[in-house]
Amino acid sequence: IRPRDWSSDVCSSDLPIVVDPRAKGKLTLRTDQPVSRAQALALFASALRGAGLAMVDSAGLLKIVPEAEAKLQASAAPPEPGTRGDPVLTQVFRPNHENASNLVSVLRPLISPNNTINVNASNNSLVVTDYASNLQRIGQLIAALDTPSAVDRSEEHTSELQSRGLISYAV
Fold first, then answer.
1. 25 DSSP β-pair partners
2. Is the pLDDT of residue 7 over 50?
3. Which distant-in-sequence residues (6+ apart) come within 8 Å of 57 by Cβ?
4. Contact of 82 with 96, CB cutoff 8 Å
5. Which residues does residue 88 pair with via DSSP β-bridges, in sequence order?
């Protein structure tokens, strides 16, 4: 992998590129049609992933590292618009209604094999390290699953009726 060959053409940022010495091999990408810089970088990131490597945007560097190591060097930030390629990132999710521990069994099969999902029970949060594109999908799934239960809705409805004076309880 020789990032210097593609970095000036594809990577429009001024980020220095560092290739881990364990990242060895040759990678050739071809397309039938011209592609934008963003598309070329996404193709490159996808090809790296297929070779067991990952791009990590960390501390002002774009690093190419073995995928298993990427989780140790991932940025602890949500993906920003215009994120280059599909880097490995760490994101914290805080469900409002669902117990984070209950979500792990649903989400773990969706996490890439070399990446992680952990629960912080003290503040009911999930700490997930994975590819930026997968973090977006996981966030959408959490939002879909993180809904009030029937009991919660019943209690909310009862409270609303009480506040309107439509029902009361004898003490």
1. none
2. no
3. 15, 63, 75, 83, 84, 87, 89
4. no
5. 131
Residue 121 contacts residue 100 (beta carbons within 8 Å): yes
145's enclosing H/E stretch is helix 132-145
Q: Which two tokens stand for residue 170?
A: 């004898």
Side chain identity at 158, as an amino acid letter?
T
Report how far residue 44's alpha carbon sits from residue 17's, in angstroms, rounded to the nearest whole number. 14
CA distances from 77 to 6, 59, 98, 140 (A): 26, 12, 23, 17
- Phi and psi torsions of 159, nearest 5°: -60, -40
pLDDT tens per residue across span 54-109: 887 776 777 888 887 777 766 665 555 555 567 788 899 999 999 999 999 889 99
Handedness of CA 64, 68, 72, 74 (dihedral sign): positive
pLDDT per position as a tens digit, 36-65: 877 887 788 888 888 888 887 776 777 888
Strand runs (DSSP E) across the chain, as ranges? Answer: 17-19, 53-58, 61-66, 88-93, 116-120, 125-131
Pairing of strands 17-19, 61-66: parallel
Q: What does residue 15 show for φ and ψ, rounded to 5 degrees?
A: -65, 130
Angle subtended at Cα 18 by Cα 14 and Cα 22, rounded to the nearest 5 degrees: 160
